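ok so for the tutorial part 2 we go from a plain amino acid sequence to predicted structure tokens. step 1 is just haveing the sequence, like this:
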Amino acid sequence: MEIPKEIGEKIRYFRKKKNMTSEELARAICKSKSAVSKYENGLIAIDVLTLYEIAHVLDVPVQALLYNEPRSIDRSSASRSSAFIEEGGCLYLYSYDGRINQICRTVIDILTPLDDRSYESMMYMNIEDYEHYQNCENTYCGRIILYDSFCMMIYQNLDMEMDHYQIGLPSPHLKSAEKWALAFGISSRPLMPTAMKILVSKTIQKEDKQLLQDLKLSKNDLRLLKHYNALVVQ
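step 2 — the prediction. this is what the tokens look like for a chain of 234 residues:
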């Protein structure tokens, strides 16, 4: 993995997302247009101060520009409730959008630990392909907080301040390849609060008819909805 190239691709993505030209970015950070081009193409490494300046100009946390290598968490310091989180650097989320009759893909990057039970995290929602999942419809930054019987993921949309997205995942202490969770936040198609069940997986899923059916509200989901007068995931 060429780290400068990976960082450069992220800079180019967020610059274009902000509708900013490379010349405008160069002026904002007091660099030449040629230097910005070399940054974005991974031809030269970026010093830390310049990287923070770029992040400030693009209005994104610096973590969004970094390359995050998949890592193993030190089990001696990890929370005992983090079995589902500690084994990898990415989570793959799947939901069904009835408005467009499609499966929606989301990737979560688990970043550096904040303490023994929480992590910095980035979420890339509605991606087109997994190779370039940072090129997505919505980018969020936030954190993952682990409790004994529950995991809460809290994010804020980098492009829409009022959009705070949360995911509640039960039983993170149990090892599993995948888990069902409840997500709630603000939809932009149209603008309204929503809550839906999602599949959270440690591996990329095959998007077939079975997955599509599993993501839809089942008869048991509707039974629980009527019983609790609330959407719940067990």
